């Protein structure tokens, strides 16, 4: 795994850039069925910009700069999710995901300045985010199916 000062392999750069795009798709899908559509569209826009920024940084810079770009996106996107969960949906998975994303982003920003920072620290974040997304999606699907059957 590349450390601060080392280049990111192309395959890793593509995966890192793809992760915010998953957030774009989830935000746009949620915007179609939730009351806070504007905030979700803003999150989709932020994540689209982040995907381009993370990809460009990962392909053209080192692990430290890539952690900075990814961390900045995680902080902003996580804060948006957390506020949305508090203001309207009160979905526990969304609260956890948004809060953890914000905190993780701060840790990525902090790690970016270390001499031996590894992009491997993003793996746990990505795995946890995927699990929380699936839990939230399942809960949403179950709720919609229950409404349809009533």
Structure keywords:
mainly alpha, 5 helices
Structure description:
The chain is an all-alpha fold. The chain has one domain. The protein is built from 5 helices and no strands. The chain has helices at 10-31, 37-60, 63-89, 92-112, 121-149. Helix 1 packs antiparallel against helix 2 (37-60). It is elongated. The model has no long low-confidence stretch (mean pLDDT 84).
Low-confidence stretches: none
Question: Proportion of β residues?
Answer: under 5%
Which sheet architecture does the biggest sheet show?
none
How does the helix and strand content classify structurally? mainly alpha
Helical element count? 5
Shape: elongated
Q: Radius of gyration in whole Å, from Cα?
A: 16 Å
Please, what is the average pLDDT?
84
Taking the alpha carbons of the first and last residues, their distance comes to: 52 Å
SSE order in H/E notation?
HHHHH
Helical amount: over 70%
The total count of strands amounts to 0
- Can you tell me the number of structural domains? 1
Topology:
Elements: H1 10-31, H2 37-60, H3 63-89, H4 92-112, H5 121-149
Helix pairs in contact: 1-2, 2-3, 3-4, 4-5
Provide a brief overview of the structure.
Helix content is 82%, strand content 0%. With 150 residues, it is mainly α.
């Amino acid at each position: 795994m590349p450390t601060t000062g080392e280049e990111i392999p192309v395959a890793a750069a593509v995966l890192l850039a793809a992760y915010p795009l998953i957030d774009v798709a989830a935000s746009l899908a949620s915007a179609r069925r939730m009351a806070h559509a504007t905030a979700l569209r803003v999150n989709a826009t932020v994540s689209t910009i982040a995907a381009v920024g993370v990809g460009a940084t990962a392909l053209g810079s080192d692990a430290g700069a890539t952690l900075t770009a990814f961390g900045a996106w995680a902080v902003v996107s996580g804060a948006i999710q957390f506020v949305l969960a508090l203001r309207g949906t009160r979905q526990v998975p969304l609260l956890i995901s948004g809060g953890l994303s914000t905190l993780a982003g701060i840790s990525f920003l902090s790690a970016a300045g270390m001499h031996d920072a590894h992009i491997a620290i993003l793996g746990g974040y990505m795995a946890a985010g995927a699990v929380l997304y699936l839990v939230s999606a399942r809960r949403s699907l179950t709720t919609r199916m229950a409404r349809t059957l009533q």
